[in-house]
Amino acid sequence: DTGVSQNPRHKITKRGQNVTFRCDPISEHNRLYWYRQTLGQGPEFLTYFQNEAQLEKSRLLSDRFSAERPKGSFSTLEIQRTEQGDSAMYLCASSLGPIEPAETQYFGPGTRLLVL
Amino acid sequence: TQLLEQSPQFLSIQEGENLTVYCNSSSVFSSLQWYRQEPGEGPVLLVTVVTGGEVKKLKRLTFQFGDARKDSSLHITAAQPGDTGLYLCAAMNYGGSQGNLIFGKGTKLSVKP
User: Which of A51, B42, B55, B80 could covalently link to A72 via disulfide, CB atoms 3.0 to 4.6 Å apart?
Assistant: First the structure.
C-alpha cells in the first residue's frame, strides 16, 4: 500500500507530557498538510509544507505545537505539555500541489490522541 | 472567512431510501470536493466539481455544483448500509493560507438494513 501512513494510530498520554506523531506521505508528493479533527467537526487546518519548507504555520493552535519535515519526505507533529483539550484526531494529507482543475489531497488514517 | 455549512447534521434512514445532503456558503469557490469518512479513518475523496451547474455521477451518488459556485449537493439513490459514514464537503482556501482545505462539519449518515 503506497498511501499516506501515520504512526502511531492511537496515543494515550497524561496531561503535561509531550507527544510526537509521524506522517509518511505518498512518495512523489511534495506538499504535506496537518489537520486536526475533533468530535462532530470537520478537519481543521494546522500547517503545511512544500518540500521541506513550512509555508504556513499561523494556524497552529499554540506555541506548544510544532511541525517539521526535515528532508522533504516524512513529517512530525509535536505537542508539548499536552492538555486535555488537545484530545482529537490528527490527520496528515499529501498532494502533488496545485494541479488543474483542483488539487487533490490524500489523507492518512490519522492518529487519535487522548490526553488524560 | 470562508465557511461551509452542511445540512442536515445527522441523517438516519432505512436501506433503499433516497437522500440528499447540502453544502452551502456565502463565498464563491473555484472548486468543491466531497469526502466520505468512516469512523477511525481519514477522509477519502469522492469527487471534485469545478464548473457552475456541473453534475457528476458516481454509481448511486450524484453530485451537483450550484450555478453560482456557492453551494453543492450530494444525492444518494437507494442507500445501502455500506453508505454509512460522515460526508464532508471541502473547498480550497485561497485566503492567507493557500492550498489548505476548509471543511464543513459534515453530515453523519446512518443507513439501517
Answer: A51
